[in-house]
Design brief:
With 197 residues, the chain is α+β, with helices and mostly antiparallel strands. The protein has a single domain (3-184), classed as NADH Oxidase. 40% of the residues lie in helices and 16% in strands. The chain is built from eight helices and five strands. The protein has helices spanning 3-9, 23-33, 53-66, 70-79, 100-120, 131-134, 136-141, 180-184, and strands spanning 16-17, 45-51, 85-91, 124-128, 149-159. Strands 1, 2, 3, 4 and 5 form a five-stranded antiparallel beta sheet that branches. It is globular. Bound molecules: flavin mononucleotide. Flavin mononucleotide (FMN) binds next to strand 4. Pfam families: Nitroreductase (PF00881). Its EC number is 1.-.-.-. InterPro entries: NAD(P)H_nitroreductase, Nitroreductase, Nitroreductase-like, YdjA-like. Residues 8-157 form the Nitroreductase domain.
């Protein structure tokens, strides 16, 4: 699959079944994704893979925190078992002259590269955040340390409908592009030099 096709046909997949990549295949794909732009090559991220019952724990931690009743707890438990693999993306900011926002951008780039590589292998994925990303209980469960921050999980598996070339027509985003020469006519006049300087 060429890159443009991958970009045009990837979708966030809400319904994911087995199989998902095993640990070895995930590591292989991540190795490729790790070549995404990364100022300073700081690799400010790490991943925690959750499978089977481990995923349910995410929902249970949120249920504990929100005081969910039995039915809501069960719903949360099921919610976080939707996909065969949940790959938690942990942002690991490095103490470095490269500002933190650039490191966060690098972590986002690696996630997108990974999603495209998964898609090219006919896996589906969706980046999920919500309560999960801000829950202190989930952070403790995942063993986050110091300044680390959970950026969410990539749910990964095989899309129910297959990845059959659901090519999309991209929106017209030309209005977001300005040619510099168009800007210049609106620039304020430079103040003429006065006085005897
Ligand atoms: C940082 C981030 C967080 C997201 N969190 C969620 C989420 O919590 N739940 C969800 O259904 N989708 C989530 N998404 C997926 C977006 O909703 C999705 O990418 C968007 O609707 C466009 O759909 P597409 O990926 O199929 O093109 C997230 C995407 C990003 C980049």
């Amino acid at each position: 699959m060429d890159v443009m096709t991958a970009v045009l046909t990837r979708r966030s997949e809400h319904t994911l079944r087995a199989p998902a990549p095993d640990d070895e295949e995930f590591a292989y794909l991540l190795r490729g994704a790790s070549l995404a732009p990364d100022h300073g090559r700081l690799r400010p991220w790490r991943w925690i893979l959750l499978r089977s019952d481990e995923r349910a724990e995410l929902g249970l931690r949120i249920a504990e925190e929100t005081g969910a009743d039995a039915a809501a707890t069960e719903a949360l438990r099921a919610k976080y078992q939707r996909a065969p693999l949940s790959a938690a993306l942990v942002f690991v900011p490095r103490a470095h002259r490269i500002p933190e926002w650039e490191q966060l951008a690098a972590a986002s780039c690696v996630a997108h590269a990974l999603m495209l590589l998964l898609h090219a292998r006919e896996y589906g994925s969706i980046w999920r955040t919500g309560q999960l990303a801000t829950s202190p209980g989930v952070g403790r469960f995942l063993g986050l340390r110091g300044p680390e921050r959970l950026l969410g999980v990539l749910d990964i598996g095989t899309p129910e409908t297959g990845t059959a070339q659901r090519r999309r027509i991209p929106d017209d985003v030309s209005a977001t592009i300005t040619r510099f020469e168009e800007l210049s006519s609106h620039r304020p006049e430079s103040t003429p030099a006065t006085g005897d300087g």
